[in-house]
Structure formats: structure tokens, C-alpha cells
Amino acid sequence: MSKLISALILLSAFTISYSQTLLPTAGSSLFAGSGKCLACHLTNKTGVLTVNGEELTPANHWRSSMMANASKDPLWRAVVSEETSKFPELAKTIETTCTRCHAPMGNKQAFHDGADGYSIKETELSKLGRDGVSCTVCHQIQPANLGTPESFSGGFEIKPEKVVFGPYEDPLVDPMTGVAGYEPRHSQHINESALCGTCHTLFTPYLNNKNEIAGMFPEQTPYLEWKNSKFPAANANCQSCHMPPLTDSVDISTTPPWHKVKRSPFWRHLFIGSNAFMGKLLGNNFDTLNLTATPAHFDSTVKKTKAMLMEKTVALEISPSQSGDLLSAKVKVSNLTGHKLPTGIPYRRVWIKLNVKDEAGNTVFESGGWDDEGEITGNTGPFVPHYNEITSPGQVQIYEGVLQDVDENVTFTLLRAAGYKKDNRLPPQGFTTKHVSYDSIKIYGEALSDPDFNRDGSAEGTGSDFITYKIKLKDKGTYSITAEAVYQSVPPGLVHHLAEIDTPEIKEFIRLYDNESNAPVIMNSVTKEIKISSLK
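Request: output the structure for the sequence above.
Response:
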């Protein structure tokens, strides 16, 4: 009897877990939940969506991405609640604007049905709203306005004709129409960066001191940054990196079971970016946040995210030299991505940690270390300027966007963000100040006068920067110089700012944040030695 009871308890626990992680299948007049697509696009034992043992089910890759969890992201929820608590008279506008890209199915459906707004509360009550940036969002986006300002800030078009677009010619129409109720249609726009640019180009209003809307601010501009790079000419789109393609032929559907069609290439639906911290937080709290991905899914996504950060993001070089008792270390930092580094919401930051040790292993100089919370040592004051030369440990090269309000004071509040006090985020290769979009993606601060920031003499577009570290030595010997490029998606300063505001969403995020390590990801590291035989 005890064995039977134990079995029933285990079955009950499995049922709860399995029920929670079921993707929604409910639909509306425009959209279907991701579970509807999973019914046919699922790896099976007959070789569907699998190559060399790699499981390729799109929904299982996507479900632990930030796109899938866009409406459940506790930091996003905290930031939205900050804005609505400070500006309650604008709450409807704020939530409608934010859910346009974070809960697009609920938002678009509401407006299609005649609503004039869409709230966080409505998102919570909607399975489609909570399904994030799901399959029938991206695959239904119409091509007509892509790449135009009208498409930005979530201005993509969805028509009620229930046509889904894909990259393959001659799609099998009847199975998808019969099972899911959508007509598949071939269109290459599904592979274009402009599709991603609909949400990854975001202009938001900013307020003056009277809480009046005073203008628009380019809050996030990865697509425009990519346009101002060498990558469009090389036909390297967003999907090339964030949905890394597999060139093998792949059977992509279980329906009908007798079909023999294979497709190539196949784009893995990983949607990996850089936010390993939030992926880890989500995976560690999937029960609390009622997520449809398991910890194993999140672990896989975090692993791939870190691999992208460490293998495809930044290059480092060190050139050491000596003049008398002065050791110089010239560090070259090169952006390997197709947009600014870092990009996206301008809270993220990359910095250089430089450590010099003597031959006994003692540290004689360090710039860019961090404490237990992940805060940069010496990071005091409202912001850290851009450096071309660093001579003391308290100086740190931080690549970041620093927001300012209409009075040019530093701010974390997005509705106060009228511009940038500093934007030395490292541009992509090919980036120039003459590009048609430059007004929206400008360089701000001391980096503008840095002669080797994105420059080689008079030529722009290197996508690199040089920092010269000068360290005064006391002894001869062999010195080891290590440079590290490190990344952090959630700076402690932002968390401290949010903690000053009392809302349930912020309290929840702070609670989850406090249980995680916020140590940055070391993207790249390089070490050089120099022998100092004389200090004269």
C-alpha cells in the first residue's frame, strides 16, 4: 500500500510539473498559442527535427529564450511598475506601449477587437499574452512596412487572413491549414533583419519637468546599428547569429507522417543573446514565476548564451612596452558583433579589467575589478567617463550608455531619458558618423574626441578601441599583464535605484535578484608577459 501511495504522490508531482510546462494551445481570431505549433513541429524517433543526435524542436529551443518569457521577465515588470508608479496618469500609455513587444499577441488582439489600450493585468489573465513573442507573431508579420519608421516600436502589421510566412518554397499547405488553421506561404522577408527591427528599434517618449511629453528618445536601436555596419553587405542578418543555421537537410514536421520533404538550411530557434543572468534567474524560479520552460531548458539556453558571449562577441590584444620605470600596456578591444557592444536596453555594460602581477604573483595594479555584488571597484559618482589613457586603479574603461534627463542629470528612469550623457558602446565594424541613421545611434561623450575609438587615422569603421594603461614600477622582473572583457546585463546601480520604489513587482524582482550571483561574464581574456631588466 505504501508503494502505491508513493507512486500516486510521484504521479501527482509529475502531473503538476507537466501541466505547468505545457505550452498553451488556445487561440484567438489572430493568434495561436505556441503549443499548437508544437503538435507537428516536434522531434520524434523517425528522424523529424533531429540531425546527428541534435534535438531541433523549435518550441523547445524558444521556450527558454528571453523572447518566450518577454511578458514574464521580472526585471521588465519591475521597470514598468517603476514608470507607472511615478507617472500614474500615463499608466495606460506606458503599459500599452510596453506590451506591444513584450506581450504582442494579447496587445494586437485587443486592438483588433476594438480596444484602445492593453494593460499588464490583461496580460496576466491571457494565456496568449503570457506566451511572449510566440510563433504566430513573427511568422505572421507582413512584409509591407518592414524597415520603415512606421514598423519600429512594435509597429509590425498582422492581418486577419491567417497566413504564416516561412523561408521554404512550396510549403505543404493542407496539413497546417487542417491542424492549425493557418495557410503557410513562402516569403524571404522572414529571414530579413528588418523583421527583427520592428521591436528591436524602439523609440519612447520622454518627459520634461512638468511631466509633459517633450520628445522621443531612441531607447534601443540594434537594427539601426546593424544597418550602419559592414554586415548587411555581407548578407549577415540578425538570424545568422541569433538563430544559427544548420546546413543539413532536416525533416521539419511530423504531419503527414508519410511525407518525405526535407528542408535546408534550418534555423535553430534559439534566439540567444547576451542575458545569461536573467536566463539563470528564470530557470532558478520557474515554479515561482509559473514558466513553461523547465530548468533544463534554461540551463541549455544559458550555456549557449555564454558560449556566444565568449566565442563570438569581442576580441582582445595587448601590446606591452617599457620606458624607464613606466610600464605601458596598450589594449585593443574589437567588437565582433553586428551592432553596438553592448546593445539593447542601455542598462547593460561591458568593461575592461586589467591586472598586472609581478613574478611572485602579487598584484601590482588592477583596474576594473568587482565586489561580491558585481559592482565595479572604484565605480563612484554619477557616471564614469570614457578613457583613452588610464593611469590609476580607480579609472575603469566602461562601454555603456548613460541616460540623462532634460536637465542633463543622470537618470535610470526611462521616461526621463531625454538623451545620452555618455554613449561609448563599441560600434560594429563599418559604423560611420555619416550614415543616414546616425542621429539615432550617435556616439556621446569623450569617445567622440578619442582618436582611435572606431578610427584608424581619418578612416572610420574599425569597430575597435585602444586603451593605454600606464603603471609605475618599483622593481625589475617579469610582469604578467592580463586583460579581460567582461559583460553585465543588470548593473547593481539599477537594482539600487529600483529598490527605492515600493511596488509589488519591484519587491519580487529584488527578492529573486538577491538570491543570484551577479558576477559578470568574462567574454574574453588575454595575457602577455614583459621582462623588465632595468628601470632606467
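The two ends are 87 Å apart (CA to CA).
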